[in-house]
Amino acid sequence: MKILLSSLLFASLCTLSSWSVSSGTFVVTQSDHVFVREGETVNITCCWTGKFERFRVYWLKNQTEIRSDYFNQPNASLKKEEKKCSFLNISNVRPEDSGTYTCKVTVEIPSLTEAKGNGTVITVNDTGNNWQGAQDSLDPGNPTKPTNVIISLAVVVPLLLVTLVCYCTLRRKQGTNFKLILKHQRLNKNISLLLCFCLSKKTRCI
């Protein structure tokens, strides 16, 4: 009896040890983030490595389950590793379809384990300009983004400089005109006083 129990325990340990190595290669990958216009069709993928007898693939939108696929492969071998995929197709997309779509693979046989993808963000826009701007902001390697910034700066900076020069020139002219008016008023006053003094003391000067 002890020999039988020892044999069963040894076999269990070997099975667990073998599965732990296989589970180390159990990886789930998903499509990159997607930007689409309203009314278009989007297709995202979820792929995993390994070969399992029985497992389920769940699609979650913002952590809420929206689809579940069941797979049963009795003749699957743990020693053979291959890559399989599940596809999520959304046609005639609407802005409310925007969100984070996560793929989760749950293995039931030979041993219960699961893995998740990093998630695919779908953004639906109904305006072409917003859609293009969203694409540019998503792709850091897009050469049009820095080019647009440089062009904008090349146009805005000279305009600001011209505006500043015009403002300073106008202020300077206004200051000069004000000084000339003061000098003219003082000159008129001095002339009036001089005439009053020369003509007569009885003359009322204004």
Automatic annotation (TrEMBL):
Pfam families linked: I-set
Ranges that cross the membrane: 149-170
The keyword Manganese is annotated on this UniProt entry: no
GO biological process terms on file: B cell differentiation; B cell receptor signaling pathway
Keywords (A to Z) from UniProt: Immunoglobulin domain, Membrane, Signal, Transmembrane, Transmembrane helix
InterPro entries in the cross-refs: Ig-like_dom (IPR007110), Ig-like_dom_sf (IPR036179), Ig-like_fold (IPR013783), Ig_I-set (IPR013098), Ig_sub (IPR003599), Ig_sub2 (IPR003598)
Position of the signal peptide: 1-24
Keyword Magnesium: no
GO CC terms: B cell receptor complex; external side of plasma membrane
Superkingdom of origin: Eukaryota
SUPFAM superfamilies in the cross-refs: Immunoglobulin (SSF48726)
SMART domains xref list: IG (SM00409), IGc2 (SM00408)
Ig-like domain sequence ranges: 24-113
This protein's name: Uncharacterized protein LOC102212909 isoform X1
Organism annotation: Pundamilia nyererei
Gene from which this protein is expressed: LOC102212909
